Amino acid sequence: MIFSRFSFLLLSLGALSLNCKTSTSQPPPPQVVYLKDVAKFPIGASVSPTLLKNNALYRQVAGREYTSLTCENAMKMRPLHPEATRYDWTDADAIVQFAKERGIRMHGHTLLWHQSVPDWMTNFQGDTPAWEALLKDHIQTVVRHYQGQVASWDVVNEAFNDDGTLRNSLWRQKLGDDYLARCFQYAREADQQVLLFYNDYGQEYAPKKMQAILDLVADFKKRNIPIDGLGLQLHINVNTSDANIQNLFQKAAATGLKLHVSELDVSVNPKGEATVMYTDELKEKQATRYELIFKTFKALPAAQQHGLTTWNIGDADTWLRSFYKRQDFPLLFDDQYQPKAVYGRLVKVLK
Ligand code: 9MR
Fold first, then answer.
1. CA 316 to ligand 1 centroid distance, Å
2. What is the pTM of this model?
3. C-alpha–C-alpha distance, residues 42 and 310, integer Å
4. What is the DSSP letter of 299?
5. 204 catalytic, yes or no?
């Protein structure tokens, strides 16, 4: 008995050394499963050029987890078009290059928004045709610059109020109610292939806004205005109801358009307490919100799954902390870029 155990040990050691020999000629099997290994649809995050450049850990996670990236800010009007006759492509190009080197798809965000408008545009003096020319030039210059490098664009971002009325933005004031349609037409004229999205938040809690977006889609289809997809931002929180999430996906999917969960994060501090304990209970609630969204997205027809993008990577990078000046932990990676427990649960959902 003792002898047979001893010989088993020897045999095992022999097998181990054999394995060691063969493993030198072959790459070792991957130790960990990353999101992109298990997701059957594009999985992404928005990224910052500064962090990509200066933070090795951030760069590593961005490069290994995702199949789609969005610039959190770098492709917005203000950074990209600082003066009337000058575009600054530096930061956005660096992100596009990062993605290209790793075979990662780029989603463009955003050609037109009421925020992040450069001062020279806000102060621009001109008649309606001059404003129209400014808008067309911006959209077409940016779309052409990234032709073949950006797969899809948020053409217009957040044009509706929660009550479903058209936001009285600079663009509406200068160009009239139908400016949205012309933005999509200008983008299509500049690039026949790129996918064109309308992107907004709050469709899960504001039924009138959701309806306004569905009406816009129906109107575009009737008038042959090009639109390929809807961006559902999904800046939600631990209290967002199952029904709201399911209703959003059901209504959006019924348009037949591609869907992009474009800016996902799940706040654990929606009331904005100065500090918040990230308790097990909050983690559990947050995980179930994430799971529901991943499961619902996974169940969509493949042709409608444009992708699922979180709004930046680690809790340290979230806009919720800087914008609301509050503590929050809304993402899948912690402040040190370690995957949180919710990450493991989503890997299981994706498998
Ligand atoms: O996360 C972005 C933050 O860093 C910027 O300061 C802000 C203004 O440009 O925009 C934030 O991103 C927004 C996105 O572009 C559109 N949907 C809402 C996002 C959060 O405010």
1. 15
2. 0.91
3. 12
4. T
5. no
